[in-house]
Known about the structure:
The structure is a single chain. By secondary structure, this protein is α/β, with parallel strands linked by helices. The chain has helices spanning 2-13, 53-66, 74-78, 81-94, 105-116, 131-139, 152-160, 184-193, 216-219, 248-257, 259-262, 269-284, 286-305, 325-337, 367-383, and strands at 23-24, 30-33, 36-40, 98-102, 122-126, 143-147, 167-172, 197-201, 228-232, 242-246, 318-323, 340-341, 344-345, 355-359. The strands form three sheets. The protein has a seven-stranded mixed beta sheet, sandwiched between helices. The protein has a four-stranded mixed beta sheet with strand order 1-2-3-12. Helix 14 (325-337) packs across helix 15. The two termini are 39 Å apart. The protein binds pyridoxal-5'-phosphate. Pyridoxal-5'-phosphate is lined by residues 104-106, 109, 130, 132, 172, 176, 201, 203-204, 232, 234, 242.
Amino acid sequence: MDALAEDLSSLDRRDLLRIRRLVGGLQGPEVDLDGQRVLCFASNNYLGLASDARVIEASARALREGGAGAGASPLISGHMEAHDGLEREIADWLGCEAALVFGSGYHANIGVIAALAEQGDAVFSDSLNHASLIDGCRLSRATVRIYEHRNLADLEEKICATPARRRLIVSDSVFSMDGDTAPLEDLVDLAGRHDAWLMLDEAHAMGVFGDDGAGLAAARGVGARVQIRMGTLGKALGSYGAFVAGSRALIELLVNRARSYVFSTALPPAVVGAARAALRIAREEPARRERLWRNARRLHAGLKAGGLLVEPLESTIVPVILGEPRIALGVAHRALGGGVWGPAIRPPTVPPGTARLRLTPIATHHAAQIDRAVDVLVRAAHEEGV
Length: 386
Ligand SMILES: Cc1ncc(COP(=O)(O)O)c(C=O)c1O
């Protein structure tokens, strides 16, 4: 245990120690954080549905009708009517033959990659992909080639240089820490040219992009050309869990081979009930999506006018790159003192030298709250010498 204590103090000395903050009450535009009421720019509850009364009521109904837990993994006795209904609704939403609900996005990514790629196959992964995709690559016994972020020339070169029985390209559609997007149209073409499958992680795009929130591939008109589309239920859909959508053969294969699906208890009915209600709202209320985007544009423009370094806005995630962890922590701490919660993201979540605040406005913030956040954040950065 002494060795662990030394590991922890080493993290602390390098400003890399992580702590958990305690949130009280509901997740919303404001939260109680360690007893202080603050504006929250820290959650992925993009559409504000985690605290929507209709979602909460649907969850309570599903709990009463289906009970507290699914009792077993889906292949034993855990696949209930609620799960089946949600899978059909997701397939309809995305215009796919079938969908499969997983315990979480992390489960989905590790399960899918390891099920589709094995020894003798090759997986090509963007260098800024989410940790769960990276871990999925590690779990598969395929050859893994990391290509430069969004660099399709590098990807193509690596594909040409890698003999493989099967080729799988994996990419976030919206990159979670940078908020930039994958060049989907070209990626789909490239995959086609090289007879490779494309797996897209749309965790930060589902609910956010597209006329009925069906994600970035749908918004860019290439949804039908992406063989494996993954999304989560715990972000814009305000609940918990994840899904993979595609052909019937893909889903049947995953039912048989994705170990994180086969060997894990199915989601509780209440969680599924919440997700189903949230999905209906996400499809039927585009005004929520418009409010989310309006807020993201307002926050981005305000920070830019305040002299902070922000890249062009490609999604509703607004990172402010600050450099060293100490500076990011300092700015986050000062902002919190002013009642604004924007979390500092440090290595290894992001590359060394790119520590940042990752700011996520949601649909239910008011314009005045965004403006107040801009004032506080710009002042905090200037006081920290940025
Ligand atoms: C891009 C991406 N993929 C997958 C996940 C994992 O999803 P979950 O939180 O449902 O495990 C996350 C975040 O948590 C993510 O940002």
